[in-house]
Amino acid sequence: MKRIISLFAISLLTMSAWAANTYVKVTSIDQLEAGMKYILVNEENSCAMGEISSTSTPYGTAVAVTIGNGIIDIEGTDVVELTSGEGSMDALGNPTWTFNIGEGSHYMCWASGNSLNTVNSSAPNNAMWIATLTDDGVVLTNKADNTRKLQYNSGSPRFACYTSSQKPAVLYVADATVTPPVTVAAPTLPESQEFENSLSVSITNNEEGADLMYALNDGEFTEYTEALTITETTTVHAKAVKGDVESAVVSATYTKVEPVVLTKPYVKVNSVDELEVGKKYIIVNEERKLAMGEITGGSTHYGSHIEIPIVEDVAYIGGTQAVELTLGEGNMDVLGNATWTFEINGSGSYILWNSGNSLDAITGDGATGATGAQWIANETEDGVVLTNKSDNARKLQYNPSSPRFACYTTSQQPAVLYVEYVPQEDEGITTLSQANALEDDENFTFDGDAVVTAFKNGYLFLRDESGYGMISGVEGTFANGQVLNQGWNATKTSNDGWAWYTGAADLSTSDETNAELAAAQKITSFPDESMLNAYVWVEKVNKGFFPIRTLPLRDDNTNITIASYPWAVNQPATSGDWNAYGVIVKNGGTLEFALVAWEKYVDYLLSGDPTGISLENANCNLQDEVTIADVTALIDFLLSGVWPN
């Protein structure tokens, strides 16, 4: 109880507004006198001991101080002032002292371990301190245990009693005859960084009334009046000047680097049918934008990780050490799974699993006979992944903890296949993912099957097996599910990571339809960028309970902003539950929901209760009963104005 009261009293005393004091360093034992005030200082980190915190293991807190010309002014700080008691000599002739904290009988003491504490009596040996002059200054060792020295721990940070070597805590003594130096706060520069073409550098003034000066590299200081434009690798020095006093000089280096050139594009493999002998592939972890590099290590080998840029779903490996895998001959296993070998960088070595999690290589013709060098390609939600033929529990994955690519039975992060993109001028583009991977302003002819998912005010949204696309500035009439005739051409463009096509010509629809691809995809959580241009819907939105510009997503309790497109419809006219249909777009880096249509939520289809429903009018397709097909027919009418035959 006494200890708790003591610590509480210390807290009150050390937080009280003591008179301002200036302190100078103690450089001789002779400067220790009874009744004088001292502080404990670590000069390297410019901090002094503050309140002894009242935890289960108390320590002296660290308080920042300014040391100028060997003088410290503690006015306005929580630095603890120690009043020295009567000194005495120990048995070895060393002078020992007590140090009273505040104005009462609260003596700084060592308790046990590293802890620094207080007692109400100056009698115990652990409340007495041996003052010793060292190269750092006058330090204090505890009389009860001369291996315990009062030091500063910069790792914690705190002042305490340590047997091991921490940073020095030295005594400063109060001296009312000295005047604190006039100081000027140094300005702030942006952190050192790399830039490509040019960089604007602003210097922040942290001293009211001061003028800023700057110098470039080894040049002379000149007055700073506006932001600097840096076009070459440059070290900027800055200081503040107020009257005759200058601040410390701060510096930062800005290094010009060559712009990243995106070469050797690879696009994601979405189907096992896309695997072809002789084509080149890379192993990619999309979440962290990493590709597998050289298979390396000691007794246990793994695939190293290489950072790669992935822009608009296209990975670029030019100038990196990413491993390119050439697909060998595939064959069928006994279960009918297609298995493949992968040659590493055309070296005659093949990627192999042999034991544990290790990923290795095998050379020569042995690869075709070694099941560990054969891989089953499987389509997953993440992409096409590789499972080893020797052990179908072993999947090639990425381990972010190590980090590395290897074969794991446990669930790590996905490692999926990307294939080298080689545009064929004479063959045109056959998938939307290929079109999205083109350079901006590149013209192309589309020779694949693209299905209309939504059409509104000249914006035509498309989908195929590889992904999504959008054409702007389209005239005519298009209905959901229609398949475009091959041979139309357009120009790829993009902004803010969102790709679309302009200037489309020769657009027409075939007699084919594909309702499955055209169907809106239900979303219940916030979409990612892979959903750009996707035609989606949100179920059962209550008009009376959401802001006019956002849609609530039911599963993860987030909202998605409604895009401010001139053709995007507003919320429905009447209250109740509605299904919202639209497309995912991008605006200023943010994914948004561009509304196309509202559909009244039909409880009858779920519950069978026809109360309040005109079944005759609800039978939109004029078949025998009201089904989901009637809802689809109504949506088609809202989008295209065409009723079913």
Explain the overall architecture.
With 645 residues, the protein is mainly beta. It is built from 7 helices and 58 strands. The strands form 15 sheets. Strands 1, 2, 3, 4, 5, 6, 7, 10 and 18 form a 9-stranded antiparallel β-sheet that branches. Strands 27, 28, 29, 30, 31, 32, 33, 36 and 44 form a 9-stranded antiparallel β-sheet that branches. Strand 2 and strand 3 form a beta hairpin. It is elongated, with a radius of gyration of 37 Å. The N and C termini lie far apart (91 Å).
Helices and strands in order:
Elements (H helix, E strand, L loop, with lengths): L1 H14 L6 E4 L11 E6 L4 E6 L7 E5 L2 E2 L2 E3 L8 E3 L3 E2 L5 E3 L1 E3 L5 E4 L5 E4 L9 E5 L4 E5 L6 E5 L4 E5 L4 E2 L1 E5 L18 E3 L3 E3 L9 E6 L5 E2 L4 E3 L3 E9 L2 E2 L3 E7 L8 E4 L11 E6 L4 E8 L3 E7 L2 E2 L2 E3 L8 E3 L3 E2 L5 E3 L1 E3 L4 E5 L5 E5 L2 H4 L5 E5 L4 E5 L6 E5 L4 E5 L4 E2 L1 E5 L11 H6 L5 E4 L4 E6 L2 E6 L2 E5 L10 E3 L3 E8 L2 E8 L3 E5 L1 H4 L2 E2 L12 E8 L7 E4 L4 E4 L15 E11 L2 E11 L3 H4 L7 H4 L9 H13 L5
| Estimated radius of gyration | 37 Å
Percent strand: 35-45%
Q: Kindly state the number of beta strands.
A: 58
Distance between the termini: 91 Å
Q: Helical percent range? A: under 10%
Q: Specify the number of helices.
A: 7
Main beta-sheet strand count, sense and barrel state: 9 strands, antiparallel
What spatial form do the alpha-carbon principal axes imply? elongated
Task: Give the mean pLDDT.
Answer: 83
- Uncertain spans, ≥5 residues at pLDDT below 50? 1-19
